[in-house]
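Sample pair:
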Amino acid sequence: MRLAMIGLGKMGYNMTLRLLQGGHEVVASDRNLDVAKELAGKGAIFAESLADAISKLQPPRVVWIMVPAQVTDAVIQDATERLSKGDILIDGGNSNWKESRVRAEKIAQKGLQWIDAGTSGGIWGLKNGYCLMVGGAPEPVKVCEPIFKTLAPENGYAHVGAAGAGHYVKMVHNGIEYGMMQAYAEGFEIMKTSPFGLDLHKISSIWGNGSVVRSWLLELLESALKEDKDLKGLRGFVEDSGEGRWTVQAAIDQDVPAPIITLSLLTRFRSRQEESYGAKILAALRNQFGGHAVKKA
């Protein structure tokens, strides 16, 4: 099917390629026209603007927005002014689930349909597929299901609930991710300071085979340590996308104790004040799955 992909950053770019590989027609649009033209050379349909992209779609038009959270409202506003009754807007970015519910209600007043697609996979999604946690009414989700099934690996997509549910589940997913990353960071820093001169790359490698703590994050850590066993090329400075904060706030609002996720978030704040090996582990993991490294000068 044909859709427009608005926003061709690390995620939007690779998602466009995966959709093209799956036989879909993708109208590619980004403020950086060179990126859109580059994708046109790989099979996408070039659009010089959001308006141009929408003009190249057929009803029911499907517009997937993959832009930073701070400009999402502006892009949605621009799109809703150009779309018609029955058209579908998909927000695949890291938006707050509460804002997604409000946006869904607003565009529904204009006869438009809303989907929020929590998207996980980072820079590896093109190869491995994206886990998709989809929120919205059943009708638009059914229309867009071929898109979701192409983007996701087998059994990696689910319609999880009404509008906002997709971003809510992705929020909690990222909160759990914070806690898992922090546990690895602390454990490897303990081993780093041991009296045994441990080979942490070797340990991360064997733990990936049969250990109860094996995971994709551990595989990424093994890859990072193989490249730089002491992580000398990284600063121990770890940003957060906002979803960890929202998870902690949701836990507070819902009276759910979540000390691990809360403390992992606070540790990220701590990492911005002073270097530590544990923080470098976190930075290495974020770089491995999302390309978010802060390199040393």
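The radius of gyration is 20 Å.
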